[in-house]
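Table S4 entry, dsRNA binding domain-containing protein.
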Amino acid sequence: METEGAATVTMRNNTDTPKAIIHKKFGSTACYKVEEVHEPPQNGCPQLAIMQKGPCLYRCTLQLPEVTVISGTFKKKKDAEQSAAELALEKVCLFSFL
């Protein structure tokens, strides 16, 4: 007894992240440097003897052979890296080649 099953075809979603595109185009020449940016507490009282820590944010500097870009500040390191990669792609105009 032979059964016919529906052939399942899975197509890979070809939406690479900006960081993945940078890695494909530049490889190990792309250098990400993530730094912590400490914000002062917004509800802090100047007379308070206990030091309060503000939120820790991250900023990423991406160095490529042609350009260096600095991202904005983000709560997650990954978001800062993706933002820097996106800015670099805009500067290098790689979006037009995708």
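The chain has two helices and three strands.
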